[in-house]
Amino acid sequence: MSPSPSPSPSPSPSPSSSVEAPGHEAQPTARRLRRLRSHLTPTAPPSPPPGGADRLEMLACARAAKLEVDTARLCEFMRGRHRGVQEQVFAYFNSRPDLQTPVEISKDEHRELCMRQLLGLVREAGIRPFRYVSEDPEKYFAIMEAAGSVDMSLGIKMGVQYSLWGGSVINLGTKRHRDKYFDQIDSMEYPGCFAMTELHHGSNVQGLQTTATFDLITDQFVIDTPNDGAIKWWIGNAAVHGKFATVFAKLMLPTHDARGLADMGVHAFIVPIRDMETHKTLPGIEIHDCGHKIGLNGVDNGALRFRSVRIPRENLLNRFGDVSRDGKYMSSLPTINKRFAATLGELVGGRVGLAYSSVGVLKIAVTIATRYSLLRQQFGPPKKPEVSILDYQSQQHKLMPMLASTYAFHFATLYLVEKYSEMKKSHDDQLVGDVHALSAGLKAYVTSYTAKSLSICREACGGHGYAAVNRFGSLRNDHDIFQTFEGDNTVLLQQVAGDLLKQYKEKFRGGTLAVTWNYLRESMNTYLSQPNPVIARWESEEHLRDPKFQLDAFRYRTSRLLQSVAARLQKHTKTLGSFGAWNRCLNHLLTLAESHIESVILAKFIEAVERYFHFL
């Protein structure tokens, strides 16, 4: 199925197709696609195949006026300048049916197949995503979307290898790390892990308990897991394939006073976990398999425990903080909080990728459900042909807003990727903060919407939607965790609300607003002094359909929510304290964050529609 919601882009391989013998090539798949095209745009009744066997006819049905769409131009506009590399991914897997994921596959088989898929893409197809992680993030995310449409486990495994493990090395390290590791990460010679999450700490990264204590005598760091709660958990690539891990731990330096050790905050360290030749677990390291999961079973998640594991001082990823040979700490950033913020700011690419990938999942599901609804005929007027179920208002109500939202999310996440690419080049502090909040909001909003939509798409296809081959089950299971990793959605929306409140305060102190929040300047000065635009202005159809009015209404809502929650927080803080006041207003804050993100999505959708008409 296509990774795009546009009516007829080139199809990607179906990950759930049964693996066929190489000699059969893709003939059955091609035959099915030809039939599907003939059903969707029939020009004449299809001729029966020789002998009349295996015939699937298009019955006459009530048809609405045909909508003419320049699908080639729409596809070009939607998929942009990186369409070519996506076609390369699809072409490679279409040529290798042995690498397509069958419907029935065990966990262990799926893991090995997923590794072969990634190795094949990199070494045989010659597609090297790692170089684009920092040089051209838009191209990297386009490759990830295509890989995820083949098998979502493949997209996530690619993300673990290049965005997380590789990204941490090049973004948190310095030239010595890039020179030593880049080529081997790129070629998959060094498969690795991103060991941040612990059993007792996920979202609260500053609460991590793993320690990295500097040994002044040996010039080494000693990595330790002090208790069971500090075991690194859910670590992708750890259970089977990883040879290295970027381990996040508290950097502990010896002192010459009664304290004994000074906590310098969470830092990242490169830790080898398996022997490069034998692949055996290295001394002091325990690796456990997290086992079978609800979805993404092609990714080998594991748990890591460290018992006095020694690594060279040079394995500290030292972009934001370093330790000298004599044990002195050096950093251009003066506080633990500033170093921590800088570290997390460099890791925001994973969150950007998840928002973008979630839209890719939604594209697939909506495409399948819409095409099925065009084909499926059920009931109709007495003594007349049955009608397509997409002609029913109820089915349209399920799918058409979802289809429109998919387009809107596509353009909103493209905007996010563009801002992220700009941030990587400029390193502008204001842009870093803007991308951090925007990625948090879009990731939370889009993944939640997609999770709900997958169930609706399955329902819209009736009993046939329950067949595993039609992918809704695997898509739903694989995507479900998107709401949790790279930041729990509820936590992320609170970050957005917190940033809005910060901008609100800055506004009244005479400060400047970040790019995405610029509309609040006008809205706080103008909207709040005017009546509600929804109830106080014209009610004609022309006005209600006017995009400017619609955007005004969305922004008015956000401004009202922001003003009211700020007043409530101020009131409750006097009696409950800041934490208690925040908790008392939590649902209000979440609604504010969602309202703001909806305003951003709508604004980007309106801009894209206008660009499309100029494009034509």
From TrEMBL:
Looking up Pfam families in the UniProt record yields:
ACOX (PF01756), ACOX_C_alpha1 (PF22924), Acyl-CoA_dh_M (PF02770)
Q: Which UniProt keywords are given for this protein, alphabetically ordered?
A: FAD, Fatty acid metabolism, Flavoprotein, Lipid metabolism, Oxidoreductase, Peroxisome
On whether Nucleotide-binding is a keyword of this UniProt record, the answer is no
Where are stretches of biased composition, namely Pro residues? 1-14
Q: Which residues belong to any copy of the Acyl-CoA oxidase C-alpha1 domain?
A: 345-500
Q: Which residues form the Acyl-CoA oxidase C-terminal domain?
A: 546-610
Domain of life of the native organism:
Eukaryota
The UniProt GO MF terms for this protein read: oxidoreductase activity
Q: Which residues carry out catalysis?
A: 486 (proton acceptor)
UniProt binding sites for FAD: 197, 236
Q: Which GO terms describe its biological process?
A: fatty acid metabolic process
Q: Which residues form a coiled coil?
A: none
Q: What is the name of the protein in this document?
A: Acyl-coenzyme A oxidase
Annotated source species: Eucalyptus globulus
